[in-house]
Amino acid sequence: MFLPQYPDSPTPPPAHTHTVADQAPARRPVPQISVSTGAVAAVLVGGVVLTALLAAVAVTAVSVAVAAVVLRSLLRDQHRR
Known about the structure:
- This protein is mainly alpha-helical.
- It has one helix and no strands.
- Helix content is 54%, strand content 0%.
- The radius of gyration is 37 Å and the shape is elongated.
- This is SpdD protein.
């Protein structure tokens, strides 16, 4: 019942013949990209340096903000007297 039905002839005749217009377009070769370990190391070091600089800027901004709040508080007390 579920057995495959094979055709009587071993190879069926071709449905159509290929013409010159049916040829596939010529493909351009894909350039090879090679990544060296030096490039990977440079990207990693650059990432670490940029992350450290970003952290330094964030810490500096927080410390300047705290200093501004303290100075504002001291000046406000000075003006009240």
